[in-house]
Automatic annotation (TrEMBL):
<keyword id="KW-0812">Transmembrane</keyword>
<dbReference type="GO" id="GO:0015250">
    <property type="term" value="F:water channel activity"/>
</dbReference>
<dbReference type="GO" id="GO:0016323">
    <property type="term" value="C:basolateral plasma membrane"/>
</dbReference>
<dbReference type="InterPro" id="IPR022357">
    <property type="entry name" value="MIP_CS"/>
</dbReference>
<dbReference type="Pfam" id="PF00230">
    <property type="entry name" value="MIP"/>
</dbReference>
<comment type="similarity">
    <text>Belongs to the MIP/aquaporin (TC 1.A.8) family.</text>
</comment>
<feature type="transmembrane region" description="Helical">
    <location>
        <begin position="90"/>
        <end position="110"/>
    </location>
</feature>
<dbReference type="GO" id="GO:0015204">
    <property type="term" value="F:urea transmembrane transporter activity"/>
</dbReference>
<dbReference type="InterPro" id="IPR023271">
    <property type="entry name" value="Aquaporin-like"/>
</dbReference>
<keyword id="KW-0472">Membrane</keyword>
<dbReference type="InterPro" id="IPR000425">
    <property type="entry name" value="MIP"/>
</dbReference>
<keyword id="KW-1133">Transmembrane helix</keyword>
<feature type="transmembrane region" description="Helical">
    <location>
        <begin position="148"/>
        <end position="166"/>
    </location>
</feature>
<feature type="transmembrane region" description="Helical">
    <location>
        <begin position="46"/>
        <end position="69"/>
    </location>
</feature>
<feature type="transmembrane region" description="Helical">
    <location>
        <begin position="12"/>
        <end position="34"/>
    </location>
</feature>
<protein>
    <submittedName>
        <fullName>Aquaporin-10</fullName>
    </submittedName>
</protein>
<dbReference type="InterPro" id="IPR026252">
    <property type="entry name" value="Aquaporin_10"/>
</dbReference>
């Protein structure tokens, strides 16, 4: 049963990692929060669950696929020529598929709770809505343009933080602690920027479960609510990834001194002394 093809191994690992991310993370935490009316969780616990799930997901697939988990990160790696462009649509499809399957698992796990809470009617709005368990929706006051900017900035911060943590010529994270650091980074962004639209930051995490709710009974309103909000968490994070990677390269990475640079050696000696 052993699979030797590298691409297949990477896809399977990525699929499992996304499954872990969603079932034990953000959507599982949201389901517990929503269906208990806040009695067994709140927005902070949901964000914390998502952050801890990222840590576990990176451990799950990091040594096989790199645990991209997010098309925005895969896109960044392509921009930086650290990941082949031909793999990008494959990884994105696997990530969306993993998110779709994971949404189904959360639905099955919380089936009774969802139907009890919603009084047997799955809706995307109103006091008993349950669609937000699976996908993000904008706050009532949020415009599409402001929401788009929110996701560009949030994803740019995410990518800049990840690149800094992985940059061995900067203050990189000690080997083995990358999953913990990245989990804390996501948690930081979510608790500081989550009020507008719950900080999706990940096209697969939002679109895959949204597609599941469409086929599972919530209907076409999952795509029309919020003036057609659904495309913003798909497109904006990719632009945010471009902005974040460009800023880090232009302001930090391009200016690292060469290892043989006398000035760099002098600065090192000064720091040591």
């Amino acid at each position: 049963l052993r699979i030797r093809n590298q691409l297949v191994r990477e896809c399977l690992a990525e699929l499992l990692a996304v499954f872990v991310l969603i079932v034990s993370g953000a959507h599982g935490g949201s389901a517990q929060m929503v269906t208990s009316s806040g009695a067994k969780g709140d927005i902070v616990t949901a964000y914390l669950a998502g952050a801890l799930a990222i840590m576990v997901a990176i451990h799950t697939a990091g040594g096989v696929s790199g645990a991209h988990l997010n098309p925005a990160f895969s896109f960044t790696m392509c921009l930086l020529e650290q990941f082949p462009w031909w793999k990008f649509p494959i990884f994105m499809a696997v990530q969306i598929l993993g998110a779709f399957i994971s949404a189904g698992a959360v639905y099955v796990l919380y089936y009774d709770a969802i139907w009890h809470y919603s009084n047997g009617t799955p809706t995307t709005s109103g006091p008993r809505e349950t669609a937000s368990i699976f996908a993000t929706y904008p706050a009532d006051y949020l415009s599409l343009s402001n929401g788009f900017l929110d996701q560009v900035i949030g994803t740019a911060l995410l990518i800049m933080g990840i690149l800094a943590m992985l940059d061995t010529r900067n203050k990189s994270v000690p080997k083995g602690l990358e999953p913990v650091a990245m989990a804390l980074l996501v948690f930081c962004i979510e608790i500081s920027m989550g009020s507008n639209c719950s900080c999706p930051l990940n096209p697969a995490r939002d679109f895959g479960p949204r597609l599941f709710t469409y086929v599972a009974g919530w209907g076409a309103e999952v795509f029309s609510r919020g003036n057609g909000w659904w495309w913003v968490p798909v497109v904006a994070p990719l632009l945010g990834a471009t902005v974040g990677s460009a800023l880090y390269q232009l302001l930090v990475a391009f200016h690292h001194p060469e290892e043989s640079d006398p000035q760099a050696e002098q600065n090192s000696l000064v720091l040591v002394s």
